[in-house]
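Progress note, sequence design subtask.
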């Protein structure tokens, strides 16, 4: 079963791309960090990303979601982020790499859990704030560069998905799958 990662800076449009891939019949797996943030908020923790445990909570949820995808599927599955993204996030937040995160990144790279080509959804020239996304556009560009470097350093090839209407971005992804 081919497992493809969508990555990019916060606010780049990954979720919209994921939704259209889903509507077009592709299996998708949601991003974990947004849900960890939402749960923390519901529990009264407004900014959980300031706590080092946040990274491990994201990694744990990512792993559960990855394992929940049925192994007998022949169709491609698209993941909104991967543990490599969480490694970039940990670095961006100034945390060291936890043992759990290091093991998970090592595992997914060694096992080839995800396709070696990662769909890198580029920024759209702006960022809209949400409860889970409180980053300036300038900071998102730094984060985008860090994501790119982290994936490349681990041997992944980045398939550029430039700013464009969502349908054009999805068509580019689908064409890339067939190439």
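Output:
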């Amino acid at each position: 079963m081919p497992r493809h990662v969508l990555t990019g800076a916060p606010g780049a449009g990954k979720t919209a791309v994921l939704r259209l891939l889903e509507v077009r019949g592709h299996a998708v797996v949601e991003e974990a960090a947004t849900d960890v943030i939402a749960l923390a908020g519901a529990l009264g923790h407004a900014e959980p990303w300031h706590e080092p445990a946040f990274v491990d909570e994201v990694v744990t949820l990512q792993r559960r979601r990855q394992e929940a995808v049925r192994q007998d599927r022949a169709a491609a599955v698209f993941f909104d982020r991967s543990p490599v993204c969480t490694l970039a996030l940990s670095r961006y937040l100034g945390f060291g790499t936890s043992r759990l995160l290091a093991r998970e990144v090592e595992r997914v790279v060694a096992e080839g859990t995800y396709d070696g080509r990662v769909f890198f959804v580029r920024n759209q020239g702006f960022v809209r704030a949400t409860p889970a996304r409180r980053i300036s556009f300038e900071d998102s560009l730094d984060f985008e560069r860090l994501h790119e470097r982290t994936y490349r350093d681990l041997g992944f090839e980045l398939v550029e998905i430039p700013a464009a209407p969502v349908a054009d971005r999805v068509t580019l992804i689908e064409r890339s799958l067939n190439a």
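Residues 9 and 143 are 6 Å apart (CA to CA). Work on this subtask will continue into the next period as scheduled.
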